[in-house]
Design brief:
- It is a single chain.
- The protein folds into three domains: about 150 residues, DNA polymerase, domain 1 (Orthogonal Bundle), CATH 1.10.150; about 160 residues, Beta Polymerase, domain 2 (2-Layer Sandwich), CATH 3.30.460.10; about 240 residues, Alpha-Beta Barrel (TIM Barrel), CATH 3.20.20.140.
- The chain is of the alpha/beta class and about 575 residues long.
- The strands form four sheets. Strands 10-11-12-13-14-15-16 form a seven-stranded parallel beta sheet. It has a five-stranded mixed beta sheet with strand order 2-4-7-6-5, with helices on both faces.
- The two termini are about 50 Å apart.
- The radius of gyration is 26 Å and the shape is globular.
- The chain is about 45% helix and about 15% strand.
- It contains 25 helices and 16 strands.
- The structure holds 2'-deoxyguanosine-5'-triphosphate (DGT) and calcium ion (CA) (2 copies).
- The site of 2'-deoxyguanosine-5'-triphosphate has 14 residues, from α11, β4, α13 and α14.
Length: about 575
């Protein structure tokens, strides 16, 4: 069993114990152990073999035994018994946003509610509101949460879908019968959440059944929903569905284009083809109005042969449109006029700002994080550890700041010889009245300030907008973090007028981040075209709490591309001396 899976099970044990109403220290011990294991740099195997696992902080004898059992046998009796001792519906109830194990336990004990459906019924007839500590308002919230759960279920965050797709693509590309293989659909378009994977292979017709056979038997396939000669559907571990199609190589570019979508983009393209007397579908081009020809486009019967997607767009007098832009958001018009932007590429990134370290809730020291950023090929690294109001994240108190700054400077000195720069920032909390939780005098000591809303999410839209706009008016604020506070598939954005926030950012010269953490991807890509028009600059921020998290920068680039951004729009594409000037610009 791998480390990530061990961590996942430990975390689930913590939650199950909470559901049982166990002592909070015991529950927390499992959650903490899960985080620790997940963040380990080394492998679990050697730690277990050498007996060093128990030396880790927070891993006592009982945990060592359980982790070892999991690692060695892929099973854990304790976990299975625990799971069996609770109704399955109860466990599902805690996926309702805002509804934790404590509340689940109360409704279970008092109302015998042990499923989402029963909870919904109990809310609708007022039994939940009548419980001590609940009331009308929380009953209403639970109902909203159930609605959200239903809306979210069946979708997956980008990075999870991406990770699920990689081994499948690798295995298919490795198969001797595969000519070309790509993932299409929303994953290729880099949407923030993914319904299902759409995987496409081109091969000779005679080879298709063998590929189907292999696909449905790949490791990670949990169940097979459909299996045909050229099309199959499976459900992967983790619940992601994957559709798989095998087409001829002549058909491949057309199928890739069609199944990449979006549906709206396809419809617009098809409309454009019709204006030229052509019909376009997943098989190829045919003469419009000749239904028989349309099917005949299959297997290289296209009236215009295209080897690549580029050639399909060319046939329609369009520049090539990158998948991220295919959302029917003006891309066809721009491609016709030759006005598509030259989108940012991963390689354009020169540094990472807004990251955390062991000074607050990060897992690695400033030095380890900066070194990791250097190894990734970046030229600079910035910390932005939490400010004092974030007590849960061990936010820095005023008296710690000199030591924090000294540490960052020391690491900076050390890495200077490699031409690498280290910046000292702060992620300062925006209080409910729009002021920041450090005085201007303190804020002035940092190289830059990332302003962030971390609490008080329930304000009405006008107040929230005024709060954020006021924070941005502070001349020490360099950039605005995750502007809507959303957690994808788990917490809705708070109410805020993004248009007004963007206009204020433009007025004050405040940078807005794309927080590239897979749960956030905030500011949303849909706003960037407008923000760019207003002259707002972007920072792509991993918000890394560990070395591993620095990988999220790549997802941030995908979102920036979706927002039509070029490297000139993103400040961390600038070299260190230039970015330094930008960070200082408002001071
Ligand atoms: P998802 O899976 O919900 O995240 O989103 P997609 O975009 O991957 O959608 P999916 O998997 O249902 O279909 C893949 C692509 O196939 C979609 O982006 C466009 C194309 N497609 C599917 N249904 C239609 C349709 O009814 N008309 C057209 N023109 N294209 C379609
Ligand atoms: Ca899909
Ligand atoms: Ca699909």
């Amino acid at each position: 069993m791998d480390k990530a899976k061990v961590a996942e099970i430990l975390d689930e044990i913590g939650t199950l114990l909470e559901l049982k109403g166990e002592n909070p220290f015991k529950c927390r011990a499992y959650h903490n152990a899960s985080r620790l294991i997940d963040g380990l740099q080394q492998d679990l195997g050697p730690l277990i073999e050498t007996g060093k696992l128990g030396e880790l902080k927070g891993i006592g004898e009982a945990l060592t035994e359980k982790i070892t059992e999991l690692w060695k046998t892929d099973r854990l009796g304790y976990y299975e018994e625990l799971k069996a001792s609770l109704p399955g519906g109860l466990v599902q109830m805690i996926s309702i946003p805002g509804f934790g194990p404590k509340r689940a336990q109360i409704v279970y004990k008092k109302l015998k509610v042990d499923s989402v459906e029963k909870l919904e019924a109990a809310c609708k007839d007022g039994r939940v509101a009548a419980l001590e500590g609940f009331g009308e308002k929380s009953q209403e919230k639970i109902l909203q949460g159930i609605e959200q759960l239903r809306r979210f279920s069946g979708r997956h965050r980008y990075h999870k879908a991406f990770a699920a797709a990689q081994p499948i693509l690798a295995a298919l590309r490795d198969h001797p019968a595969t000519i070309r293989c790509e993932v299409a659909g929303s994953l290729r378009r880099c949407r923030e959440t993914i319904g299902d994977l759409d995987i496409l292979v081109s091969a000779k017709e005679k080879d298709a059944p063998a590929l189907m056979e292999m696909f449905v038997k790949l490791p990670g396939v949990m169940s097979v929903s459909a299996k045909g000669d050229t099309k199959s559907s499976v459900v992967l571990d983790g619940g992601i569905q994957a559709d798989f199609r095998v087409v001829s190589d002549a058909q491949f570019p057309f199928a890739l284009n069609y199944f990449t979508g979006s549906k709206e983009h396809n419809i617009a393209l098809r409309g454009r083809a019709l204006q030229r007397g052509l019909s376009l579908n997943e098989y190829g081009f045919s003469k419009a109005g000749k239904e028989k020809d349309e099917a005949g486009a299959r297997d290289g019967g296209s009236v215009i042969k295209c080897r690549t997607e580029e050639e399909i767009y060319k046939a329609l007098d369009l520049d090539y449109i990158p998948p991220e832009l295919r959302e029917d958001n003006g891309e066809i018009d721009a491609a016709e006029k030759g006005e598509l932007p030259e989108l940012i590429e991963k390689e354009n990134l020169r540094g990472a700002l807004h990251n955390h370290s062991t000074w607050t809730d990060g897992r690695e020291t400033v030095e380890a994080m900066a070194e990791a950023a250097r190894e990734l090929g970046l030229d600079y690294f910035g910390t932005a550890d939490h400010s004092k109001s974030e007590f849960q994240a061990r936010g820095l108190k005023e008296e710690q700041i000199p030591d924090y700054l000294a540490d960052v400077r020391k690491v900076g000195e050390k890495l200077k010889k490699h031409g690498f720069r280290v910046f000292a920032g702060i992620e300062a909390d925006v209080l409910e009245d729009g002021s920041l939780d450090f005085s201007d005098k303190i804020l002035a000591q940092f190289d830059y300030v990332v302003a962030a809303v971390h609490r008080g999410f329930t304000m009405e839209e006008k107040k929230m907008t005024a709060r954020i706009v006021k924070a941005m008016a502070n001349p020490h604020v360099t950039m605005l973090a995750h502007p809507t506070g959303r957690l994808l598939l788990s917490r809705e954005a708070y109410a805020v007028d993004m248009r007004a926030v963007i206009e204020a950012a433009a007025r004050h010269g405040v940078i807005i981040e794309i927080n590239a953490h897979p749960f956030r991807l905030d500011m949303d890509w849909r706003w960037w075209k407008f923000a760019k028009q207003c002259g707002v600059k972007c920072a792509i921020n991993a918000d890394a709490h560990s070395i591993h998290d620095l990988q999220y920068l790549a997802v941030g680039v995908g979102i920036a591309r979706k927002g039509w951004l070029t490297k000139a729009d993103v400040i961390n594409c600038l070299p260190a001396n230039k970015v330094e000037a930008v960070l200082k610009a408002r001071r």
